[in-house]
Amino acid sequence: MTPSQAPVRALLTNGTAVTVRELGPEDVSALLELHRSLPVEDQYLRFFSTSPRQLEDFVQRMVSPDVPRHVVLGALRGDRLLGAASYVVLGDTDCAEVALVVSHTEQTHGIGTLLLEHLVSLARGRGVRRFKAEVLAMNFRMLRVFTDMGLVWTVVPDGDVVHVDLGLEACDRYLDAVAEREAVADVASLTHVLRPGSIAVVGASRSPDSVGHAVLRNLVEANFTGDLYAVNPHAKSVANVDCYASVTALPEPPELAVLCVPAKAVPGVADECGRRGVRALVVISSGVDADELMKVMRGHDMRLVGPNCLGVSTSSPAVRMNATFAAHSTLAGDIALVTQSGGIAIGVQEELRRLGLGLSSLVSTGDKLDVSGNDLLMWCEHDQETRFVALYLESFGNPRKFGRVARRVTREKPVLAIRSATSEAGQRAAASHTASTATPSVTRDALFRQAGVIAVDSVPELTDVLMALSWQPLPEGRSVAVLSNAGGLGVLAADACVREGLHVAEFSDQTVAALRKLVPPAASAHNPVDTTAVVDDATFARCLDVIGADPAVDAVITVTVPTALGDPTGGVHRVEGKPVLAVRTGQTERLADEVPCYAEPARAAAALARLAERAEWLARPAEFPELDGVDLTTAQAIVARRGEGWLTPDEVVTLLKAFDLPVLGGTFTTTAEHAVSAQRAYDAPVALKAVADDLLHKSKGGGVELGVADAAGVAEAFHAFQERFGDRLRGVFVQPMADGGRELLVGVATDEKFGPLVVTGLGGVDTDVIDDRAAALAPLSTTDADGLLHSFRAAGAALADADKESVRDVLLRVAALAAALPEVVELDINPLVVSEKGCLVVDARVRVAPARPTDPFLRRLRTS
């Protein structure tokens, strides 16, 4: 937040919204009124006096235009100032004195904490690193506010006064505390959407083929438990629900209004709803003027789903709401579905219905002008009736917050997402469909993977995985047994498992012997097991028991086909502690004993692989290690001095060494004589690299000479560069030749929304020949770094275990650099030479640009 930015809207703990903005001289009257309205006790706690003197002068100083040394933030509802938080920088330090005042009648809704969060973010962006405060020891409320912030703090009692010192670093504890407060506020506000006590359908037509009629009819047929109203000035009733001429004419303000009116009428109807006291809107209509609608929503403090959406529903017995125009109602269940596409919502709903799975809630977000996927993830996290979350998101408003929220939710509840807009054509369609830019697939996939989100590519794959998650436990490993009465299909199942990264288990001798006693001589007792077509379901069941008892087996896939001799499918059953997935050609369903059944082996193997990935993700805690040897001050000075553009080679070396990266180093020179002196100092063959305007790829551009071993060769190479590049040549970088080894690439590319993306893969000449790379978003946990090392195809062959340790450290340090220095918009280490001696950065380039301070974790609602 900067002085030129628009005010920010944010939710309080009771679900209502306030506007947070910087206060100026024009707000003196409001500040005076706020302070004068405090009761005597509050005035004493604030000023250590029951009658503060020179209050007018004090308030005038608060709003003096001395940015960034003196800042005041206010929380307002309409024109009324509810609270203010300020800081004053102490002398020439990075420390400031902080103060807070909140209206006595508003002190239980989290205004003080919200203001402090925004003040901390603003101060941190302006170079302030610590807050100090003096608080009366009896002021328990204020001390509790500081404690609840989650910042690192110290207190020093001094008689009746407590000296408080707050560090402003956004540590995990602080971000977790902010996220928990945000979740409480979000859940409170979304209660009006998903647990309303009353609903009005505006635009409820008598025509059965109209959207408004369908929404109202679905609400009636779902037996909505609250009060239901219809708004239609031309009818007395629709679907046996009494109609009213307008929202104003309703006997009471409905908690939720569903708008099914023409797009041009939406802002006016929304304004009428706000004036009547409606708390939330679902706008089905498409083609709505977004700016006009959001101006109305902000003015009346209402939450909005849509516009351009299917609607919302919940199967909660306390509500039983189906405010959608879907053709069929959903089954009650424990899956929450959040989707930007109404068509995807209908497709998933219908497929789940066929399988006997149901939804706890469905929210079609449409154009996402207000209520977003992040909001709904927080709702799902706290909803006791939701066990699984399914998402279809074509774009992300705040992906870094999504990653943090999703990482927390997926620890408790599986989160699945259908990938979309992977192709160029798909991205164009998504942008047209949702009026927003689709997310690049590499970045999106990295986000999902690091957050533990199970990514799938289709509606059938989504329901395949949901079946397995709903009815079976997670596997303890990737070893799979295949049991079939049709040998060929068993082989296909084994092949599918291998393609999905699963392993075909090796049975113990005892398991093989036990199976041979059960199956005919012509059968195969080794994995994959072929019982032949003659076994009955009882024998098949005993074979399953024997296989499931083998410690080498983590999961079982059964494949059965009916023959004239019988159908062993009836013998398929659960195995204690291990997932069992069945395959029956042409059928996707639930068998007896809650065993999911798939139409083909590949689908069962894919679903099982997703379960294995989830089990592995849950088993690996995300640890963000403290890296030693980091000199952030030096690094910040380098990027600040350069400002914008590519760093010089010596600046690159200094920057990378500040993060203790193993840099080969070298000497930058502008004369042939100096280059010769550098080679003599190294007393070894050297590499000469031209530093020239627009020369980014030195090898391709003829800017590299390797293995130059004498003065004559150095001088010749230097003069050759002068002739080749002319006035573009800025100098030459001289480096000793590095020992050989495996060459990797490690790079960073920064996205304005997603932040820095760390990329690794084969480097050197292989970079352009083989497109084999993996990517992850910074900052990296140790698990993320290990994932990178296992994600590009050649990693296994290229790196030994000892090599991976040193490469992991490089990845963690590069990610830390990118996260700490948003000014670094592009970084390319190529090659990173990996040998038995460790890693060595042989060549690197870095581009910097001024960074606009952003805080993706700050609590705020969408403003457009």
Walk me through the structure.
This protein is of the alpha/beta class. It folds into five domains: 8-169, Gcn5-related N-acetyltransferase (GNAT) (Aminopeptidase, 3-Layer(aba) Sandwich), CATH 3.40.630.30; 189-468, Rossmann fold (3-Layer(aba) Sandwich), CATH 3.40.50.261; 480-495 and 504-619, Rossmann fold; 621-664 and 739-864, D-amino Acid Aminotransferase, Chain A, domain 1; 665-737, Dna Ligase, domain 1 (2-Layer Sandwich), CATH 3.30.1490.20. Helix content is 36%, strand content 25%. The chain has an eight-stranded mixed β-sheet, with helices on both faces. The protein has a seven-stranded mixed β-sheet with strand order 11-12-10-9-13-14-15, with helices on both faces. A seven-stranded mixed β-sheet has the order 17-16-19-18-20-21-22, sandwiched between helices. The longest helix is centred in the first third of the chain and has 23 residues, at 172-194. The radius of gyration is 32 Å and the shape is flat. The two termini are 16 Å apart.
Write a compact overview of the structure shown.
The protein is an alpha/beta fold. It folds into five domains: 8-169, 3-Layer(aba) Sandwich (Aminopeptidase); 189-468, Succinyl-CoA synthetase domains (Rossmann fold, 3-Layer(aba) Sandwich), CATH 3.40.50; 480-495 and 504-619, Rossmann fold (3-Layer(aba) Sandwich), CATH 3.40.50.261; 621-664 and 739-864, ATP-grasp fold, B domain (D-amino Acid Aminotransferase, Chain A, domain 1); 665-737, ATP-grasp fold, A domain (Dna Ligase, domain 1, 2-Layer Sandwich), CATH 3.30.1490.
